[in-house]
Specification:
Layout lengths: L3 H6 L5 H12 L9 H11 L5 E6 L3 E2 L2 E2 L3 E10 L5 E4 L14 E6 H4 L3 E2 L21 E2 L2 H5 L5 E11 L2 E9 L6 E7 L6 H19 L6 E7 L3 H9 L7 E7 L8 E4 L7 H13 L3 E4 L8 H4 L8 E5 L21 H20 L2 E4 L23 H14 L1 E5 H8 L3 H13 L3 E3 L2
Parallel strand pairs: 7-8, 11-12, 11-13, 13-16, 14-15
Antiparallel strand pairs: 1-10, 2-3, 4-5, 4-9, 6-9, 10-12, 14-16, 17-18, 17-19
Helix pairs in contact: 2-6, 2-10, 6-10, 8-10, 8-12, 11-13, 12-13
Length: about 425
C-alpha cells in the first residue's frame, strides 16, 4: 500500500494528460440530472474505479423535494421552410434547453422567438439553459444565428421523453482504519461543458483511483451526483450515515487556468477549512479564500443547518465570474492538463494534511528539554534551513499540550505543515512527545 505522503511527492506520470483524455471522452455526452447520458458518464468512470451505481425511482420524496421524472433526448432541431436546420441538437447538445418537453409543431418566427435563448454580448457562443422543474421547452443558439433568422414557417422538433424512471448517482466507499469519513463529491449533470464540470469528474476519478491503493487512516465516501437534487437525495437516504463525515470537499470547476479558490464550510473554521488554507499558503501560489454563503454548488446542501457538515468547496475560477461559464465557450480549449494536475496535487496535499494532523502531548513540559543530547539541535551537515527546522521543533514542543493539533501549530507558527510534521516525528522518536489517542 502506498502512503499519501508518497502520493503527494510522486505524482503519477501523465496524470494531467490522463485526466484531460477523460474530459475529451465525456465531452460529447448530453448529460442531465437524470437519464441515459448521466448513466453513460458513470459507466465510463466505472472503468477506472469500482463505483456502486444507485437508482432512485421518480416520485421518491427526499426531504422537501421529489425525485423528478427521467429525461432523455434523441434529437431536436428547428428547420426553415426549405428544410434547412437552423438549430441542430446533433451539432451541439447545448442547443436544446435541458429537460425540454417533447415538441412537434410548425410555427412562425414570432411564435418561436420566446423559446429562443442567446447571449447578445457574446454573439458566437451558445448559452446553457435548463427547465428542470418547469414543464417547458426551448432552444439555445448563437446570437449571430438568431439575428439571421427570417420571417418564415419553422418546423420545431424536440424528440425527448419525460417519464417515470430513476435518478442515478455513483458512490464509492473506501474503508480506512477509522469509520470517520472524508467526503469527496462532484456534480455530473451538466452537458458539454469542460470546466463545469467535466474537470471535477476527471480530478475526482483520479483521486479515487489513487486512494484505492493508499494507506488510509480515514474512510472515504466518494460521490458522483447530479447537482442539488443528487446531494439532497443522498442525504435523505443517508441521514444517519452522514454523521460519520468529519471533513468534506465539493469539487467544481477545477480545470481552468485561474487561481485556486476555496469556499469555507458553514462553520468557517472547520478542520477542512484550515487544512485547505494551510496547503494553499504553503504552496506560495496565488489563491482566494471565500466565506461561506448559502448559494453555489452542493456544499449548500451538506452545510444546511440540519446537517451542518464540515464541507467546503474547492474550485479554480469562481462560478459565474468568468465569461465562458455556462456556455459553449467552456470547451476543450478552456481547460488545461496543467490546471487539472495542479488541482489534483493540491487536493492530495489536503488529504495528506487531514490524514497526518494529530495532537501530541509534550512528555517533558517543564522548561525546554535539552535537544542537543538527543541529536536534535546541532546539524553536522549545516543545512541552510536548519534554523527553520530548529524553530519548528521548539514550536511543536511548546504547543503540544494535548490541546493543539499539528495544523494548529503550523497556523500559529506560520511554518509549513511539512516542517511541523517532521519536527513532531523527530520529537516522538526521541521520546519527547506522546500521540493522543
Amino acid at each position: 500500500m502506498t502512503s499519501l505522503e508518497e502520493l503527494c511527492t510522486h505524482l503519477p506520470k501523465q496524470i494531467g494528460a490522463d485526466m484531460m483524455a477523460l474530459v475529451e471522452e465525456l465531452y460529447p455526452i448530453c448529460r442531465s440530472i437524470t437519464g441515459e447520458g448521466l448513466r453513460a458518464t458513470l459507466q465510463i468512470v466505472r472503468r477506472t474505479i469500482p463505483l456502486v451505481i444507485h437508482e432512485v425511482p421518480s416520485g421518491t420524496a427526499v426531504f422537501d423535494w421529489t425525485v423528478p421524472k427521467e429525461w432523455n433526448i434523441r434529437d431536436a432541431y428547428v428547420a426553415n421552410s426549405r428544410g434547412e436546420k437552423v438549430v441542430d441538437f446533433r451539432r451541439s447538445n447545448l442547443h436544446v434547453v435541458n429537460y425540454s418537453v417533447p415538441v412537434r409543431a410548425r410555427m412562425t418566427l414570432a411564435e418561436l422567438r420566446p423559446h429562443l435563448h442567446t447571449l447578445p454580448d457574446r454573439p458566437d457562443w451558445i448559452p446553457y439553459r435548463t427547465t428542470y422543474y418547469d414543464q417547458s421547452w426551448g432552444f439555445c443558439l448563437r446570437h449571430r444565428d438568431f439575428l439571421a433568422l427570417k420571417d418564415d414557417q419553422y418546423e420545431v422538433v424536440i424528440d425527448s421523453s419525460l417519464e417515470d424512471g430513476h435518478l442515478t448517482y455513483g458512490e464509492l466507499h473506501l474503508p480506512g482504519q477509522q469509520e470517520d469519513e472524508i467526503l469527496l463529491t462532484t456534480h455530473v449533470c451538466h452537458p458539454s461543458m469542460c470546466n463545469d464540470n467535466l474537470s471535477g469528474i476527471a480530478v475526482l476519478t483520479s483521486l479515487a483511483n489513487a486512494l484505492l491503493g493508499a494507506q488510509r487512516r480515514y474512510s472515504y465516501r466518494i460521490l458522483f451526483i447530479p447537482g442539488t437534487i443528487g446531494s439532497i437525495t443522498w442525504l435523505a437516504r443517508n441521514r444517519q450515515g452522514a454523521s460519520r463525515i468529519r471533513h468534506g470537499l465539493v469539487l467544481a470547476g477545477v480545470g481552468d487556468r485561474g487561481a485556486i479558490s476555496y469556499k469555507r464550510s458553514r462553520r468557517g473554521d472547520a478542520e477542512i477549512d484550515r487544512a485547505v488554507m494551510q496547503v494553499l499558503r504553503d504552496s506560495g501560489a496565488q489563491h482566494r479564500i471565500l466565506d461561506f454563503s448559502p448559494y453555489g454548488y452542493d456544499e449548500r446542501q451538506f452545510c444546511s443547518p440540519g446537517f451542518d457538515l464540515p464541507v467546503g468547496r474547492f474550485s479554480r475560477s469562481e462560478y459565474g465570474t468568468y465569461p465562458e461559464y455556462h456556455s459553449s465557450a467552456d470547451d476543450l480549449e478552456f481547460v488545461a492538463a496543467a490546471s487539472l494536475e495542479d488541482s489534483y496535487a493540491n487536493l492530495m496535499r489536503v488529504l495528506f494534511v487531514l490524514e497526518s494532523n494529530e495532537t501530541f502531548t509534550n512528555q517533558n513540559p517543564w522548561c525546554e528539554p535539552q535537544l542537543g543530547k538527543r541529536g536534535l539541535y546541532d546539524n553536522p551537515q549545516q543545512r541552510a534551513d536548519w534554523g527553520q527546522i530548529r524553530l519548528a521543533l521548539l514550536w511543536v514542543l511548546n504547543l503540544s499540550d494535548g490541546k493543539h493539533s499539528l495544523l494548529d501549530i503550523a497556523a500559529r507558527s506560520q511554518a509549513g505543515f511539512g516542517a511541523i510534521l517532521g519536527a513532531a516525528r523527530a520529537l516522538e522518536a526521541a521520546g519527547l512527545l506522546r500521540r493522543q489517542l
